[in-house]
């Protein structure tokens, strides 16, 4: 188990990366400009890529360098580029009808982090890992999950929803690098490719939405009820 | 023998996809898809029989043909065949879509392929990817008709299901983590490995991981309260796709829950795992009953019936034991046959009356004596009336609940099944026996392609209601023993 015998330096670097990613999700949660979302997402992906490389270095998993490069390329460059093209095509720059004000969603987000910390700590304690970076990894993993769901429920612009889904996945990826660095590379690579296909599908669907439903806001998708 | 059969079953739909993409013609695409579905069906029957002597593993343990998997493969292949026959007739009825139909068949065969692949995945991570792929392919089938409603349904489908399935990914990672305490940091995460390592896993971590996986795949199965995408997607997609979503895809995702349930049992969190599944099953029945009684769309009615039946299957597996598991597996098969029949009938009626509203569909029997009778028999069957297969499977599941001391769940299930019986058949009474209210657009011509698959679905359904083959019972009890951690 990597987390149990980490040098203090490595543990601090891992913690730093995890916390920076969490902060970046708060940036996404607190802003209303779609471009800011996009930059925060790209930055978060780069942080995760760096994390992969450091885990590879300290844990002795050379294959994680490959994952780091792919993460940086796919999540850090290609996905943001695809999404940026969608933003340009849609001509939407910000969320206009917010269900929850950014400040309120930040508060809800903070509470969900506290909840996740409690869960993470309990699980860590029962595993005898309460004093390690595992608790933080678990907390960040679960918090990014909840923040992603929060974004999904309070944002309605199609693009914000895609980004929220990507935050959900980023959280898992980040946690997985620290907790299970030995997870087979094949699966990680396939998941990365899968993500690309997901975004491509979303791109096509957004075009359909514009053409047939005349809107990209989920608030106006209310033909089907009951 | 198993290896080549498996290969043939996968190559047939893959070749159909390739053929559709090359030829771009409706007539060629139709035939290719039909041939592929027939081949896949034949191979799936053989695999289901041969799996009893298995499990057979291929490609460094990434692929497995075992009894529970092969059973779901069979259910999938049956629906694929029936829906492919039906699609030939139904898709020709769509106006102005002729030039796009090759795309439909390419996606349709691709969708069948992804569901078939998911049933033989032996690695929990790859299984997740296969299930994710089923979503991506089927999204475009849901949104195939260029109407605002279809695109809306497709969007809601992909967003809700992707969000749900990401929870399953988190659960999968946590399962891997809990396994790594037993098996070391790097290991192949196959179902058997997880089950064997289960006894030594940390119960707190496994509970968290299991609940995440249950919610995640439960979204895909359509268990309430994560079912919200299901009525939209099932009602807005073309009828053959609705049948595939309901009869094939839902079972494919249920398989994942069943496999994780076996791991949870091994990890000693059985009561929590089974209790959670039973609770979701009961809640699905409650939601389905409420929406079935007050439904006014014909395909949404069928969709809520799928929520109901997935709830029943969840209850079967949740109750566990030989009766619970056997009943649930039998219910999967019967539901696949029956729901295909129901969606085919709904599609026919929808095309003939030019509406999805139950209030505008009247005098069905007078207009289609044969097809109307088949659909009505299907409606009686889907509500659990004898002498059809679902009656038997529901009865066995109820018995499983009594054996497992889930008396309250059995009582609630019984009451809700009766409510659904009355509510569902009341809609059919209105459609069959009330006089015509609106002067509607009437297009009676339906080809044989639209009616034959209804016969093909109803006949075995009746047969399975009258006679539960003893070989099949033995097969199910072996599966129940294997899932409980015993040897076959």
Task: Give a verbal description of the structure.
The complex is a heterodimer of chains A (226) and B (488). Chain A has 226 residues and is mainly alpha-helical. Chain A has helices spanning 8-30, 34-59, 63-90, 102-127, 133-154, 158-179, 185-213. In chain A, helix 3 runs parallel beside helix 7 (185-213) and helix 5 runs antiparallel to helix 6. The longest helix of chain A is centred in the last third of the chain and has 29 residues, at 185-213. Chain A starts with 7 loop residues before the first helix and ends in a 13-residue tail after the last helix. Chain B has helices at residues 2-23, 26-50, 67-93, 101-119, 124-142, 148-183, 191-197, 203-221, 229-236, 239-266, 270-293, 298-319, 321-353, 364-367, 369-382, 389-403, 407-433, 448-466, 470-483, and strands at 56-58, 63-65. Chain B has a two-stranded antiparallel ribbon with strand order 1-2. In chain B, strand 1 and strand 2 form a beta hairpin. In chain B, helix 3 packs parallel to helix 13 (321-353). The radius of gyration of chain B is 21 Å and the shape is globular. At the A-B interface, helix 4, helix 5, helix 6 and helix 7 of A face helix 5, helix 6, helix 8 and helix 9 of B.
């Amino acid at each position: 188990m990597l987390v149990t015998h980490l040098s203090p330096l490595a543990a601090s670097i891992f913690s730093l990366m995890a916390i920076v990613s969490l902060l970046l999700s708060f940036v996404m949660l607190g802003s209303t400009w779609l471009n800011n979302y996009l930059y925060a997402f790209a930055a978060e992906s780069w942080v995760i890529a760096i994390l992969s490389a450091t885990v590879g270095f300290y844990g002795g998993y050379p294959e994680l360098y490959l994952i780091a490069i792919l993460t940086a390329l796919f999540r850090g460059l290609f996905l943001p580029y695809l999404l940026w093209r969608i933003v340009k095509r849609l001509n939407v720059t910000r969320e206009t009808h917010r269900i929850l004000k950014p400040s309120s969603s930040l508060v809800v987000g903070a509470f969900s982090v506290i909840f996740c910390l409690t869960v993470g700590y309990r699980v860590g304690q029962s595993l005898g890992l309460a004093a390690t970076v595992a608790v933080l990894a678990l907390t960040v993993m679960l918090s990014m999950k909840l923040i992603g769901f929060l974004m999904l429920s309070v944002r309605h612009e199609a693009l914000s929803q895609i980004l929220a889904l990507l935050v959900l996945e980023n959280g898992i990826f980040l946690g997985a690098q620290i907790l299970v660095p030995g997870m087979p590379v094949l699966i990680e690579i396939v998941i990365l490719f899968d993500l690309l296909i997901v975004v491509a599908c979303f791109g096509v669907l957004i075009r359909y939405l514009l053409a047939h439903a005349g809107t990209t806001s989920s608030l106006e998708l209310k033909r089907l009820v009951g | 023998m198993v290896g080549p059969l498996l290969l043939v079953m996968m190559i047939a739909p893959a070749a159909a996809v390739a053929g559709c993409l090359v030829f771009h013609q409706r007539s060629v695409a139709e035939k290719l898809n039909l041939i592929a579905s027939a081949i896949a069906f034949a191979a799936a029957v053989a695999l289901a029989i041969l799996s009893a002597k298995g499990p057979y593993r291929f490609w460094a343990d990434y692929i497995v043909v075992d009894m529970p998997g092969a059973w779901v493969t069979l259910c999938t292949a049956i629906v694929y065949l029936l829906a492919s026959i039906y699609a030939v007739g139904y898709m020709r009825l769509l106006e102005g879509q002729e030039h796009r139909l090759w795309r439909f068949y390419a996606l349709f065969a691709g969708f069948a392929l992804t569901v078939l692949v998911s049933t033989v995945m032996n690695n929990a991570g790859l299984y997740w990817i296969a299930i994710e792929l089923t979503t991506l392919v089927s999204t475009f089938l849901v949104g195939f008709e260029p109407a605002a409603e279809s695109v809306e349904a497709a969007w809601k489908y992909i967003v809700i299901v992707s969000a749900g399935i990401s929870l399953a990914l988190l659960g999968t990672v946590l399962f891997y983590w809990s396994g790594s305490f037993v098996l070391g940091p790097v290991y192949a995460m196959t179902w058997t490995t997880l089950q064997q390592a289960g006894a030594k896993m940390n119960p707190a971590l496994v509970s968290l991981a299991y609940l995440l996986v249950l919610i995640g795949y439960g979204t895909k199965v359509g268990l309430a309260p994560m079912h919200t995408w299901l009525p939209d997607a099932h009602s807005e997609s073309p009828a053959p796709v609705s049948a595939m979503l309901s009869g094939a895809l839902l079972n494919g995702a249920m398989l994942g829950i069943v496999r994780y349930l076996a791991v949870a049992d091994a990890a000693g969190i059985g009561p929590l795992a089974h209790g959670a599944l039973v609770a979701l099953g009961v809640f699905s029945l409650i939601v389905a009953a409420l929406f079935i009684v007050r439904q006014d769309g014909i395909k949404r009615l069928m969709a809520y019936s799928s929520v109901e039946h997935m709830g029943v299957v969840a209850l079967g597996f949740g109750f566990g034991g030989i009766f619970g598991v056997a009943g649930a597996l039998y219910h999967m098969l019967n539901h696949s046959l029956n729901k295909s029949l129901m969606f085919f009938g709904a599609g026919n009626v929808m095309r003939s009356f030019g509406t999805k509203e139950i209030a505008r569909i009247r005098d069905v029997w007078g207009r289609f004596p044969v097809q109307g009778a088949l659909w009505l028999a299907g409606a009686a069957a889907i509500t659990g009336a004898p002498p059809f297969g679902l009656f038997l499977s529901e009865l066995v599941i109820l018995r499983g609940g009594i054996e497992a001391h889930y008396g309250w769940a059995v009582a609630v299930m019984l009451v809700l099944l009766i409510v659904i019986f009355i509510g569902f058949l009341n809609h059919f009474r209105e459609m069959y026996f009330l006089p015509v209210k609106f002067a509607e657009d009437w297009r009676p011509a339906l080809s044989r392609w639209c009616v034959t698959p209804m016969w093909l679905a109803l006949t075995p359904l009746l047969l399975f209601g009258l006679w539960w083959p003893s070989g099949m019972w033995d097969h199910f009890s072996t599966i129940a023993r294997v899932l409980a951690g015993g040897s076959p």
